[in-house]
Write a structure and sequence with these properties.
The protein is of the alpha+beta class. Helices cover about 25% and strands about 30% of the residues.
């Protein structure tokens, strides 16, 4: 077994891995950015090291610095969690070359499954059913148009070859939408995965997203742990997951069939560790297609743990250490039903716009069958630098109906002060008939009128001039290593350390900056969120229609399209591409359209 594991991640997954290490008697090492000095995952591990600046490229994606910390800490294994470097084949290879164990599949498997086009080709050769479409990259829009018209038909999905998590995924319902979809998917692929190549698939209208959890070791053992239904998504990103799927969706025969597909797919790439085969189940024909393989532990692994009693993280560590799996296929039994709600810092009424901010009081639900995997606590902060997840709320009960009642009870107990989250959204959706009948809720999540009913009450602004509370506990860094110390005496009168999670340019908003937009009239379009101005599509003097796209704000790994709230003329444009923008800051002043001259008599 390993002597020390470095956890190359942050937030709730880093805490989850640190807990597994502690239970297995393995010392753990946390890493953190300057924005995460006070984060809970730093305290969860036995040691902690600073990586660098607040931006992911300066810290959690800084491979060179992580390799230095591995050497400094004496770790002989690295757990990547999910996101960041979890599916980065060069990182896994760099660890292998340095004699460090990567707790996950071999770099060859990550590489094979990391490219969606290569994965589709491999799966097709292995006899695994894939969604009809291309198995090679489509180089140009003109090629895409020809293939869509001659071979696939519309609607068509355009996907980035290295995409995942809803990134680099666009749909063209008709031919005239294909160019925007092609360019958008390529742009996101380049931005998030440094790979702008795309491929085409037949778009399945309203399919169910059903995935299979697999575990494999180096001794030839590969098993599946049943399926998860992750059909409730916004922007192709999951918000609610359950295990198993509703019984009227997946029966025992289908479970065995898609389980075999998952095992066959894993064996085709000599997989080791925990992984997930994602698939689409056609609502019309009942056909099941391979979608992609996530070569890591999934965010929603918790629901599978609840219904099987198998600790997926520990099994992944065991497999990486060369041990056999603790279970065989016949020993996997599904009991009861589990549901997971992702508690994200998002405002569902604003089309799920990210809503970063500081947390006041914080109290998690508890009681029978309730589990909370969280990366924050009282006084914590969800910054715009990373994803918007606050926690995962998971419940288990004897069946789906009782698990739903338990989840509603737990959501009602959850207290998160000062932050807009998806709790009201989850509470409302789980009481809908669509949820009770097992609908994908696709139409509901696209219903802006329904989402508007979930708007938060407006509260008075917090007094920004109020003095901050200073504690007597301090964190110091010596040669980049973190230590917690206690100072006996009064705090020095020199102000406080700048808050973690400043805006992208490292500048705290100037006092009154948000108020600049607060007094605007109906002509003023304000930013609904904090982020970075990714693209501006209008200029001063342009005539715009109500609902026309004005700009795209990137926040928490998501592109957020901002549209005109009224028709008129852009009389003033307050934004520039590449600049940071705060919530409530002005975007544009849209004046009433000029009156047309009266016709001559």
């Amino acid at each position: 077994m390993f002597s020390k594991i470095l956890i190359a991640n942050r937030g709730e997954i880093a805490i989850r891995v640190a807990r597994a290490c502690k239970e297995m008697g393995i010392p753990s090492v946390a890493v953190y950015s300057e924005a995460d000095r006070d984060a809970l995952h730093v305290q969860a591990a036995d040691e902690a090291f600073l990586l660098g600046g607040p931006l992911p490229a300066e810290s959690y994606l800084n491979v060179e610095r992580i390799l230095e910390v591995i050497k400094e800490s004496g770790a002989d294994a690295v757990h990547p969690g999910y996101g960041f470097l979890a599916e980065n084949a060069p990182f896994a290879k760099a660890l292998e070359d340095a004699g460090i164990t990567f707790i996950g599949p071999p770099a060859s498997a990550i590489d094979a499954m990391g490219s969606k086009t290569k994965a589709r080709e491999l799966m097709q050769a292995a006899g695994v059913p894939i969604v009809p479409g291309t198995t090679e990259a489509v180089d140009t829009y003109e090629d895409a148009l020809r293939i869509a018209n001659d071979e696939i038909g519309f609607p068509v999905a355009v996907k980035a070859s290295g995409g995942g998590g809803g990134k680099g995924f666009r749909v063209a319902l008709t031919q005239d939408k294909l160019k925007d979809a092609f360019e958008g998917a390529s742009r996101e692929g380049e931005k998030f995965f440094s790979d702008g190549t795309v491929y085409l698939e037949r778009y399945l209208p309203n399919p169910r997203h059903v995935e299979v959890q697999i575990l494999a070791d180096t001794h030839g053992n590969c098993i599946h742990l049943g399926e998860r239904d992750c059909s409730i998504q916004r922007r192709h990103q999951k918000v609610i997951e359950e295990a198993p799927a509703p019984s009227w969706v997946v029966d025992e025969e289908l479970r065995a069939r898609i389980g075999k597909i998952g095992v066959d797919a894993a064996k085709a790439v000599d997989y080791v560790g925990a992984g997930t085969i994602e698939g689409l189940l056609s609502s019309e024909t009942g056909e099941y297609f391979f979608l992609e393989m996530n070569t890591r532990v999934q965010v929603e692994h918790c629901v599978t743990e609840m219904v099987t009693g198998i600790d997926i993280v520990k099994e992944g560590i065991r497999a990486a250490a060369g041990l056999e799996l603790s279970y065989r296929q016949e020993g996997v039994v599904l009991r009861g039903h589990a549901i997971e709600c992702r508690i994200n810092a998002e405002d569902a009424s604003m089309n799920f716009a990210p809503a970063p901010g500081k947390i006041g009081n914080y109290k998690e639900p508890s009681g029978p069958g309730v589990r909370v995997d969280s990366g924050v606590g009282p006084g914590g902060e969800v910054t715009p630098l990373y994803d918007p997840m606050v926690s995962k709320l998971i419940v288990w009960d004897a069946d789906r109906e009782q698990a739903t009642a338990r989840m509603l009870r737990a959501l009602g107990e959850y207290e998160i002060e000062g932050l807009k989250t998806l709790i009201p959204f989850h509470t409302a959706l789980l009481q809908r008939e669509e949820w009770r009948t097992g609908d994908t809720c696709h139409d509901l999540l696209e219903d802006k009128a329904w989402l508007k009913t979930l708007a938060f009450e407006k509260k008075p602004r917090v007094d920004e001039d109020a003095p901050e509370t200073v504690t007597k506990g301090y964190t110091v860094e010596v040669s980049g290593k973190r230590f917690d110390v206690k100072v006996i005496g009064e705090a020095f009168a020199g102000g406080t350390v700048a808050a973690a999670g400043a805006s992208h340019n490292g500048r705290k908003p100037a006092r009154g900056e948000r108020k600049k937009a607060a007094g605007g009239g109906p002509d003023l379009l304000e930013s609904p969120l904090q982020g970075n101005m990714w693209k501006v599509l209008v200029k001063q003097g342009d005539e715009v229609a109500e609902g026309q796209l004005i700009c795209i704000i990137e926040a928490m790994k998501m592109e957020n399209e901002i549209t005109a709230h009224k028709a008129g003329t852009i009389s003033e444009l307050h934004i520039k591409e590449g600049e940071a923008i705060n919530s409530g800051a002005p975007i544009a002043t849209i004046s009433a359209p000029a009156a047309e001259p009266a016709a001559a008599e």
